[in-house]
Amino acid sequence: MGFGANRYLRSTCVLMLLTVSCGDSGSLGSNSGTSGPDPLFDQQWFLINSGQSAFSTGAATIGKDINYQTTVSQGYTGAGVHVLLSDDGMEIDHEDLAANYDASRSRDYSQPAPYTGSGAHKNLFDMHGTAVAGIIAAVGNNSIGVRGVASGVSISSANVVSSSVSLSTAMLVDQANTTAEIVNQSWGSTQNFINVISPTYLAQIASAVSTKRSGKGTIFVQSAGNNYRVSVGGGLYRVGNSNFDGLKSTSYTLVVGALDSADSSTSTSSTGSNLWLSAYGGGDGATTPAILTTDRAGCNNGLSISIATKNTFESGSNPFNSNCNYTSAMNGTSSAAAMVSGATALMLEANPNLSWRDVRHIYATTSVKVNPSISSVENPNVASPSGHVWQQGWVENAAHYSFHNRFGFGKLDVDAAVAMAKTYSVNLGTDQTSTASSGAVSIAIPEDNTGAASILSDATGLTVESVQVKVSITHPNVGEIGLELTSPSNTKSIVKNINDSLSGVANLSDAVFTSNAFYGENASGNWTLKVLDGATGNTGTLTNWTITVYGH
Fold it and tell me: Which residue pairs, CB below 8 angstroms and at least 24 apart, start in 312-317?
């Protein structure tokens, strides 16, 4: 299916909060609007984690944060870099955002083309963008509220997923055709169907990464989604896959998963071989800390009115939030993507010559392996066939990059990423692609753990940056089907789990799955696709598949 407004959801969830303590003042580094410390900074555990509660009844695990103190102490704030917030709008005159807001690059998609307008929120149901904006760009050291990861960055708004907007491909193309260095897209479709990206929109993204920023390319940061557990009807749940959303399965986007305050993947963060890295999404805000950020102004707007049981912070009775301009309720992969957008702005301030591929390389190199001893796991909802590994643990590939479908290359480490950016000398060379196709085949898929295998060969000698497989299968319930891709170096990537959230969906027709697990490997040799059927009673056939290597 193509892009439709009713198919897209903001990639965050907001849960009830309980009464908790209030914050203290704190400061770090400098900012162009300096006048004093940000009073809620000390509760932003994801910036510097000293075990804060962030107004929940629980506490963060000390030391679990994005590690950015050295970067900020050196004066980096994202100054000179611009982020486009593609979301449901933004409170453009918010006390902690207005100084970093650029109206000239904003869009209002409730207006006709050319969509000239402020990109502001249009109604009470639009609140997500302001929370995301605060994580990226809340002004630092202005004696007000919170601090953004890149507190001196310039930000504009494109309210493409506002509840007042009827989403179209033309709007998606327009917001991607921006002069901003970074586009933050903390939204996407539900993951119980294959959402096919519009070819027109895909072409615009491909153009943006090759032509914008004088050829260095726009950096698209995308939330992985909050569909780890998806309802498939009848009281049943299956695990989703970020690859099912075509917006997230391109090879041009930095797809970001979410961690809680103890460095575990959140219970909602979507899995997928298309992830690049992870950052903090936080917990439920009630028993575990969520993300403290900006909110729609006033106690009758924004997240303050969306929470059934208000705590003292959300209700306006906390002296640091008497006007309900801030929230402790933000969470999910939306928050994680915003942190990566902010961190990317710091990297580009440190080295404006980085290309979009350089940024990806730095993150693949510097991200931190979390839960390094995590083992392979069974499907949490459906038993796997005997002997089948449903989800792998960390896999180190032949180029010595470690990858996990729930974390990508690991957790964002801002200091390490900026340090590498400052002295960056890697020459990735010209980006190239190589494609091989099986053509029409008819390979029966056995109903057991044996699976059906098909092999395609590559002789280009490219160094892999990412790999896409396009697969066509006839089967009455492709939720039962699993797909495993193995490289010439014998690295295996599970690109689609058996018994997943496509339960009840018939057939795959040119379904695209991206894997980043082979980063740095040599592409030459045999690539093997294994197709498994995780249940009995239905039979299926692999009818065509194609592999495309993106590399240099």
Answer: 312/19, 312/20, 312/22, 312/55, 313/17, 313/20, 313/22, 313/55, 314/17
